[in-house]
Amino acid sequence: MTKVLLIDDSIDLLEVLKYFLQEKGYEVEIGSSQSDLKSLLKGFIPDVLIMDIYLHGEDGRDICKELRKESETKNLCILMFSASSKALVNYKDYGADGFIEKPFGLVEIVHKIEATLERCRNYQHD
Questions:
Q1: Integer Cα distance of 105 and 115 in angstroms
Q2: Regarding the domain with residue range 3-121, which homologous superfamily does it belong to in the CATH classification?
Q3: Does pTM surpass 0.85?
Q4: Is residue 78 a contact partner of residue 48, using CB atoms and an 8 Å limit?
C-alpha cells in the first residue's frame, strides 16, 4: 500500500484529501505544520510527501531543502502544492520532485502522485 503524508494548514483540505486517498487504497497521515511533519516522520515513512508551500509563516520550499540535507529524508519523494503558480515555477531548485497547482481535481492528484512516484523510483537525490 502506498503511503502518503499530507502537510497543509487547511484542515478541511487535509480531511477531504485523506478520505479520498484512503478510498483509493492509499495509507494517509496528515499534519498542518513543520513540527507535525517532523513528528510524523519519526513513525511514518511515506512513499510520497505532499506539502503546501505556504504554511502559517513557514515556507514549504525551505522545509523541502532541509529534508534533502538529512540522510533519512534526502530521497523522500516530495510534491509541492500552492495556489500561486509563481511560487511553483522553480520547485526543483528546492528539491521537490513535482508540483500541483491549486485548485486541483481529486482524480488529478492521484495521477500526479503515481507519475511522481514513478519518476522518484528512477532517481536518487544527491
A1: 15
A2: Response regulator (3.40.50.2300)
A3: yes
A4: yes
